[in-house]
Amino acid sequence: MRRLRTLPWLALLGVLRVAAGDASLDDSTAVTESATPAYAIDDAAYGSDGLERYIDESYYELQSFWSNYCAQGCDPSYVGDGECDETCNNEECDWDENDCFHGYGECYTLSDGSDYRGEVSTTEDGVTCQYWSRLWPHTHDKTVYNYPKAGLGGHNFCRNPDGEAKPWCSSSSSCSAAGPRLTEGRLLS
């Protein structure tokens, strides 16, 4: 079974041609990456052999291509503006051009762990932490908007945005990030 993808501008051409009724559904075994039927467009303008163009792009991906958005909801003016914008805090946007914390080790130097920027995302009991950007299953006000310097965002890593005794995450148990500390240049457990 073939898995195919196309560039956004090719998908846009395909969408326009499908809308104009100038395309046929390919009933071969080809499917798109999302396992939906692929539409084939034969167009002599793209080669005398009638190349097939497959469409598997969402509206957002097309919008991203034309608008230079690095992620859904991340306006290009937000990237590198000195604030950690939750929608831009991802690899595609280079962690909001380093406005957001990323790549820090599992150590922290402040006694309450408020400077912890590691990637522990489970509690001491092994429960997976809730993403800071989600308000379910537990509601909270600990968002990147309310605590812009706390290292929060579109992840579920333990943090201490509000001055608790140690890093934590939204769950019924305390976080396992309490152990490591940087003391005299070495990691202690």
UniProtKB/TrEMBL annotation:
Pfam families per the UniProt record, alphabetical: Kringle, Notch
InterPro entries for the chain: Kringle, Kringle-like, Kringle_CS, Kringle_sf, Notch_dom, Serine_protease_kringle
Annotated organism of origin: Emiliania huxleyi (strain CCMP1516)
One GO cellular component term noted in the UniProt record for this chain: extracellular space
Record protein name field: Kringle domain-containing protein
SMART domains: KR (SM00130), NL (SM00004)
SUPFAM superfamilies documented for this protein: Kringle-like
Domain Kringle as annotated: residue spans: 106-182
Molecular-function GO terms, alphabetical: endopeptidase activity; signaling receptor binding
UniProt keyword Disulfide bond present: yes
